[in-house]
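Work Package 4 report. The design task specified in the project plan requires that, given a folded chain encoded as structure tokens, an amino acid be chosen for each position. We show below one input record used in the internal validation round.
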């Protein structure tokens, strides 16, 4: 698990290899990742959007942006957490992701970025 705190918001990420899928003549390595967002600040905040950099060792970096996460824009009161799980597919057994969330502080009405630390997406057998 990797973790990082930005402006009182703690991000924790766990990954899991979900298997291999064949589509047409291409093999895809499927990875899931669970992100926990913990509000350690004294103010309520809301996640507005996400920005991901996805690296695959066999192709160029992919950038994914969008509103919220999994169709939601969670609001976190102080000391509250929110966890979601999503997935990605790679054409190689080795990759990584990192990015940031755009959030708003309801007390100050200021928008800010929360960094998502880089995490590895690696087929378990590669590590042995």
């Amino acid at each position: 698990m990797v973790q990082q705190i930005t402006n009182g918001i703690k991000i924790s990420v766990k990954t899991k290899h979900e298997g291999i899928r064949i589509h047409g003549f291409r093999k895809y390595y499927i990875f899931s990742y669970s992100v926990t967002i913990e509000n350690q600040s004294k103010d309520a905040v809301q996640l507005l959007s996400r920005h991901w950099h996805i690296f695959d060792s066999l192709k160029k970096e992919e950038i994914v942006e969008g509103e919220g996460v999994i169709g939601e824009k969670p609001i976190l009161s102080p000391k509250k957490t929110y966890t979601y799980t999503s997935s990605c597919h790679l054409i190689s057994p080795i990759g990584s992701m990192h990015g940031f969330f755009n959030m708003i502080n309801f007390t100050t009405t200021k928008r800010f970025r929360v960094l998502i630390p880089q995490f590895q997406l690696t087929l378990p057998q590669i590590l042995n």
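The chain is about 0% helix and 70% strand. Validation will be extended to a larger panel in the next phase.
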